[in-house]
Amino acid sequence: MPTETIPDAGPARAPEKVRFTGVTKRFGDHTVLDGLDLAVAPGERVTLIGPSGSGKTTILRLLMTLERVTDGVVHLDGEPFSHMPSGTKGALVPADERYLAPRRRRIGMVFQQFNLFPHMSVLANVTEAPRHVLGLGADEAGARARDLLGLVGLDGMEDAHPTRLSGGQQQRVAIARALAMRPDLLLLDEVTSALDPELVAEVLDVLRDVAAGTDITMLCVTHEMGFARDISDRILMFDGGRVLESGPPAELLDDPGHERTRAFLRSIR
Questions:
Q1: Phi then psi dihedrals of residue 200, to 5 deg
Q2: Pick from 6, 31, 165, 255: CA 20 to 30 A from residue 135's CA?
Q3: Which of 241, 115, 263 is nearest to 189 (CA)?
Q4: Cβ atoms 173, 180 nearer than 8 A
Q5: Alpha carbons 16 and 65: distance in angstroms, whole number
């Protein structure tokens, strides 16, 4: 089994929420991420932009362990995440499911598609994972679910089924479901791309409220530049599996330093 050597960490410092160190992801001969180095601080809101196929969603999928890295190491809260310590001092091996499971619970993700259980009520969709994964009792899980449904503007919809909801309402249920697991890292993958244009604003408003009212670290892939401007501490422009440039929203969106970024922003406005 391949191993990685843990580099000298140097002086002690507060752990980053997420760190990608030399991460490469290949699918056959196609390189999607190319030696990526990326750090996200606790509580930071980082938005990833760029053309389709530039590697943005792959970053989220690696953090959800839906994909595995080809080379390099992903760290979570200062500890190896994509890998785990081996019996050899200073060496890492690819993480197994037993190592990953408790660490993955810190991460919530909202996908492009809602992926709700159509045969379950809204309340059951939100309480299912907290009860069976976190081991919460029915009363505690239900109370938290009702609070979160209130947060996303779905008071009184607990008994409805997803087929009776609009796309925007279903995506708001999906956001409540992700938050019900009490993650400290929330991944958002083009959460409005499956919605009709008139429903986009209601979902983005909910996410703005989540960003304003919590200290959850957020890593977001979006083509909604107004939303990116509102919630982000930092925006990263991706192209060809690498970070082309990064900066605060006002800097990167209003005065990008790279022609490729300017061309991309023109193409989506």
A1: -60, -45
A2: 165
A3: 115
A4: no
A5: 19
Tell me if 205 sits within 8 A of 213, measured CB to CB. Answer: no
Q: Look up the pTM and report it.
A: 0.90
Query: Within its chain, how far is the Cα of 28 from the centroid?
Result: 25
Separation between Cα atoms, residue 102 and residue 106, nearest integer Å: 8
Taking 3-state DSSP, the helix, strand and coil percentages for the chain, each rounded to the nearest 5, stand at 35, 25, 40
What does DSSP say about strands 242-247 and 234-239: parallel, antiparallel, or unpaired?
A: antiparallel
Rounded CA separation 214/88 (Å): 40
Buried b / exposed e over 216-251, threshold 16 CB at 10 Å, is bbbbbbbbbbebbbbbbebbbbbbebbbbbbbebee
Alpha-carbon span 220 to 208, nearest angstrom: 12
**Residues 180, 212 contacting (CB under 8 angstroms):** no
- With H, G, I as helix, E, B as strand and everything else as coil, classify residue 108: strand
Coil vs helix vs strand at 217: strand
Question: All domains of the chain, ordered by start, with CATH?
Answer: 4-106+183-268 (3.40.50.300), 116-182 (no CATH)
Cα 61 to Cα 81, 180, 250: the distances in Å are 13, 20, 28
Q: Say how many Å lie between the first and final Cα of the chain, rounded.
A: 47
pLDDT digits 0-9 by tens, 187-225: 999 999 888 888 899 899 999 998 888 899 999 999 999
